[in-house]
Amino acid sequence: MPRNSTDAHSTGPRIYVACLASYNAGRLHGAWIDAAQDLDDVWAEIRAMLRASPFPNVEVTCPDCEGADPQVSRCETCKGRGNVPSAEEWAIHDHEGFEGLKIDEYEAIDRVVQLANVLDNLGTEAEAFVAWWHNGTAGKDPDAWEDEFREAYRGTYRTIADYAEEVLGETYDLDSIPPLLAGHIDWDGVARELETGGDIWTADGGDGVLVFDNTV
């Protein structure tokens, strides 16, 4: 997709929304849009891109006067007509910053924006959210996704054995175990029991093992 000088410096989830009238005419026309913003603002940018299309095929309400009485508005944008030319159809032809989440060509914009804002809010935990999302445990309410994730995510550990030692250390007084015995605890085996028993599930992360509670 076309990129301008600011694209290389942009961060966060973005989508490239293309005008299909232009695309079908062999011309690239579209815009990179920050997806981690208010839904109304994303729609406003999509509509602005369509109004700027070199292949308009419909007319839409003027964005400046909103179709007001021309005798009252004297709008220069639509010359008093109340409408302006625009293309109608669009599709998402590229995306970036979604940490491995696949965004389909005709993905619902409200869903894209919800995911983008969750990822943006989570920052360094976005990778873990994607692993949790791919596990298929997200509920149907988009507003609850971030809270559901935070309830399930237990952190990133160097090994699963490190997690087992930490979580059991919070439950039992490991300091009371004689060092001779403590040094022989099979934390790898304990971790396997936690995982095979269904208490937790894990995924590989860039900095270690992502651990999730499987009981919530």
Care to give the gist of this entry?
The chain is elongated, with a radius of gyration of 25 Å. It has helices at residues 20-24, 39-51, 70-73, 109-122, 126-134, 145-152, 160-171, 179-182, 187-196; strands at residues 14-19, 30-34, 58-61, 83-86, 90-96, 153-157, 200-205, 208-213. The chain is 37% helix and 20% strand.
Structural description of this entry:
The protein has helices at 20-24, 39-51, 70-73, 109-122, 126-134, 145-152, 160-171, 179-182, 187-196, and strands at residues 14-19, 30-34, 58-61, 83-86, 90-96, 153-157, 200-205, 208-213. The two termini are 41 Å apart. It is built from 9 helices and 8 strands. Helix 4 (109-122) packs across helix 5 and helix 7 (160-171) crosses helix 9. The chain is elongated, with a radius of gyration of 25 Å. Strand 7 (200-205) and strand 8 (208-213) form a beta hairpin.
Features:
216 residues; alpha+beta; Ubiquitin-like (UB roll); Arc Repressor Mutant, subunit A; 3-stranded antiparallel sheet; disordered N terminus
Give me the Rg, rounded.
Answer: 25 Å
Number of E-type strands = 8
Low-confidence stretches: 3-9
Largest sheet: 3 strands, antiparallel
What is the distance, rounded to the nearest whole angstrom, between the alpha carbons of the first and last residues?
41 Å
Strand content: 15-25%
Number of alpha- plus pi-helical segments: 9
CATH architecture of the largest domain: Roll
